Amino acid sequence: MSGLLFAELLLVDADVSSAFTMRTVLQNVGYIVQRAESGQAALDAIHNHAPDLVLLATDLPDMDGYTVARQIRADQRRTFIPIIMLSNANDQDGIAAALNAGADEVLVKPISNAELLMRVRAMLRLKQSTDALADLNATLERKVEERTQALEEAHARLRHAEKLAALGNLAATVAHDINNPLTGILTYLYLMRQDLPEGSKLQKDLELLERQAQLIADLVKKLQSFSRPPRKDKRPVAIRGLIDDILKLIEYDLRKRNISVKCGCEYQLPEVLGAPDQLSEVFMNLIINARDAMQSGGLLEIRAATDEDGMVRVQISDTGPGIAPEIMAHLFEPFHTTKGEHGTGLGLAICYRIIVEEHGGEIRVESQPGQGATFSIRLPVVQ
Ligand SMILES: Nc1ncnc2c1ncn2[C@@H]1O[C@H](COP(=O)(O)OP(=O)(O)OP(=O)(O)O)[C@@H](O)[C@H]1O
Ligand SMILES: [Mg+2]
Q1: Which CATH number does the domain housing residue 82 bear?
Q2: Which of 180, 206, 227 is a domain's end point?
Q3: Domain range spanning residue 194?
Q4: pLDDT tens digits, residue range 274-302?
Q5: The whole model's pTM is what?
Q6: Fewer CB within 10 Å, N side or C side of the chain?
Q7: Is 135 a member of any domain?
Q8: pLDDT at position 228 over 60
């Protein structure tokens, strides 16, 4: 309904002469009036196109006006349609029955033109305010839904941060307790090996032991990096240079595995504010994950560009098998790995910590099973 004028009214009255008079009066002031001669015709018309108001006679050939009113009110989904009941008798019981059936107003025939117009206008105003209220209600409901979702997301992030902190403390303690004896073991293994004749069986055995101990040392380093990434001073960093350096290191390995690399970087990409060693560690982790995912070769794509809000976005995509939903749910939590003894499940937890907690950035992943994965990182730029 666009305002009170041009409102669409449905006049349900079998009485030809009274219907004709009312219709003329209402049309003369600009209302669009449709007429129905029976209860069923009225219900069909409302079903096809809801009018802004119904004028409903109590006596109809197929059913009484009360039944029609009740059926209109029974449809809760529809927006509010005011009903003015047109009664033949001015008896209290009839008026009460009309109101009970859901009518908003009762007019007793004969109805003066002035009264008819006044009541119709009042009812249309009522409809306008009710509709406005319903709109407001819908907007409010939508807003509450949006806020609830935002709150749930914030809560999930908090839970994640708390879990990380608890695990971080544990990891820091374990790493510390292992580190000291391990340094001793590695030093003594090295010294013992030096004293033995070159190529002797014992020397080879010691070499093997040293390699195993080195694996433990690597794990401890990762645990430390996860639990307490050393505070590094931040400075302007050119992302392109970092990525190029990493690619140079890993190029040969990728080629051997039939993985081609495509690197697209926006011209004059702004520098980000970060700790270069930490950021290198993140890109290295993501590239190695992509490499591991492409067991039978594929394409590693790296893009860097500025987002609309000025942050720098780096995307690392692979054409591997993608990430299954059950893994996706715990992707950034520590110790979730599908690589058995070849993975610690710390790589992405470290990335999260460095990007989100240390740099105030964002890290996200998009992946459909069977269609590769894309990790996106957003970092604040140097102001
Ligand atoms: N690009 C990717 N494609 C498919 N799965 C991936 C990808 N990146 C990560 N994953 C999945 O997420 C898991 C966790 O990765 P994360 O880097 O944290 O640990 P990891 O690679 O298993 O071990 P590491 O500590 O050595 O990095 C992986 O085991 C793998 O299942
Ligand atoms: Mg990894």
Answers
A1: 3.40.50.2300
A2: 227
A3: 148-227
A4: 999 899 999 999 999 999 999 999 999 99
A5: 0.59
A6: C
A7: no
A8: yes
